[in-house]
Amino acid sequence: MKRDYVDKKDMSPYAALSVIAAEDQLFPDHNGFDIKSIKKAMQNNSKKKKRLKGASTISQQVAKNVFLWQGRSWIRKGLEVYFTFMIELIWGKERILEMYLNVVEMGKGVFGIEAAAQKYFKKPALKLTRGECAMIAASLPNPKKYTVKPVSAYVTKRSPWVKNQMNNLEPDPDIRLLIFTKPSSN
């Protein structure tokens, strides 16, 4: 397992923009939970038991990846809600996003944006281009299956969509404040 923690200042701003575009477009605006998406997933999952859909926000994924174990249980889900609430309250969006980019799996045994940048593009995360970030973010629903290198059909198809979403989100004032400003000194 390869993981290299890096500060926000050492990541391409497109890394943050791409994961928000791909995984949680309401990230700057919600309190850790996207209620509309949760309701939609519950409706889908009650009809299609074999193909479960998730509705986890970036905040929920950080809570799960940093504080909890893998798997599905009501106890783990309850703790995920608690930790999500706490990190939203204590850490704030900037820190949650930085943690997400450092802990999320971005390929088999590849954790975090720095490890992904080095493995797939032989460069530091700071130097990743918009397109490279979109490819990595496109793999996130299942990075072991949807590979960046060799590029899977899914990533080939989804990365242009992610880039388009990045273009749509980039002018948003909340996105600009969160991603394109200097990190606050905590």
CATH superfamily: Biosynthetic peptidoglycan transglycosylase-like
Main structural class: mainly alpha
Global morphology = globular
Percentage beta strand: under 5%
Q: List low-pLDDT spans.
A: none
Number of strands: 2
**Count of discrete structural domains:** 1
> Which architecture per CATH?
Orthogonal Bundle
As laid out across the biggest beta sheet, the strand order is: 1-2
CATH topology type: Penicillin binding protein transpeptidase fold
Overall pLDDT, averaged?
A: 89
Structural overview:
The protein has a two-stranded parallel sheet. It contains 9 helices and 2 strands, in the order E-H-H-H-H-H-E-H-H-H-H. 56% of the residues lie in helices and 2% in strands. It has a single domain, classed as Orthogonal Bundle (Penicillin binding protein transpeptidase fold), CATH 1.10.3810.10. Helix 3 packs across helix 4, helix 3 crosses helix 5 and helix 7 (130-138) crosses helix 8 (153-169). It has 186 residues and is mostly helical.
Key words describing this protein structure:
186 residues; mainly alpha; Penicillin binding protein transpeptidase fold; two-stranded parallel ribbon
At a glance:
With about 190 residues, the protein is mainly α. About 55% of the residues lie in helices and about 0% in strands. It contains nine helices and two strands, in the order E-H-H-H-H-H-E-H-H-H-H.
Helix and strand layout, with pairings?
Blueprint: E1 2-3, H1 13-23, H2 35-47, H3 58-67, H4 74-90, H5 93-103, E2 110-111, H6 113-121, H7 130-138, H8 153-169, H9 173-179
Parallel strand pairs: 1-2
